[in-house]
Amino acid sequence: MESEEFLDRIFVKIVRRYERKGKLSGSMKLGQALSSRERALLSNFFGLDPLRINAREEVRLSFDKLLENGTGQQWLNRIADRLGCSIAPPVERHGSSPARILCSRLSLAFPELEPLTAALKEDSTPLERMFAGKAQETVGEYCFQAAETVRFLLGNSEPMTISELGARFCGDSKRLRQGKLRTLVMEWLRICSPDGDLLEEESDLLSRYHVLSDRLTVHAVFYGPVIYEKDGTVFDWIFRLYQQGEPATIGWSTLQNIDRIYWYDDEPLPLICCENEAPFSKLMREKQQQGILFTSGFPGSAVQKLYQLLAPR
Fold it and tell me: At 62, is the pLDDT very low, low, confident or very high (cuts 50, 70, 90)?
């Protein structure tokens, strides 16, 4: 019974796609992280060749491959037989809907965001909702701002605050702090993130792309005998804290434009990265000749910067 319901849901999606587009073309997402039984049901009906599984464990159906083994009408007839209903030809449409036109514009303007535009082509309902009671130009500008922001973040390697991000792409430093545009950016960023978790917390997602809530809160905690030079001055306060058995909290601004950072006596020591506080404190108490970098789970921008400065060449 469950297997029949699973296939019926797939068949209904295909029928709705056909009714919407007027033909079977392109590819379509059938599900994500499907069980081996569900995949077997799909391959038994469609065959193996038309099915594709990507890095996010999405199972997609290639209609081009499917139609190598039968016409579109033949496949629709098979689906209709399984559903126990008839599939009427879609009503002829005069022109495309604003949502579909916008989707095509996004696809042309942002080829790097193919996972997003593919998802919108498959189901344009989210875009259609945006057009309800709003001018096409307003929705278009809104979506292009979101897409430009997502494209930038996917290739970003330098830290910036959410206010700086809003000012850069929306002309308003407050625009991405909260609200519908922020929600849209988060949703599209999740779709485009390689191996992304659709349930990932916003703060973790932004940290992954080096977006900070406040530069003053960004720091690295380090314990080890290091000295650095900056603007012609030698700073040994990290080393002095190490001698006292205390870790140093190093702010992001401190890590910028360091001319040179080196181990005491210029002898490189092992660098240990520790994501939990308890083992970090335990390693400090052991007072071994080593450096200990506290990563606190996903390493933030300051942690990554310090690691790059200290890591062996």
Answer: very high
* CATH class of residue range 218-310: alpha beta
What's the mean pLDDT when you consider all of the chain? 85
Sorted by where each begins, the domain ranges of the chain are 2-83, 98-212, 218-310
**Burial letters 147-186, b for 16+ CB under 10 A, else e:** bbbbbebeeeeebbbbbebbbebbeeeebbeeeebbebbb
**Long-range contacts at 71-77 (CB < 8 A, ≥ 24 apart):** 72/18, 72/23, 72/24, 75/24, 76/15, 76/18, 76/24
Position 203 confidence tier, pLDDT thresholds 50, 70, 90: confident
Nearest to 259 by CA among 231, 237, 236: 231
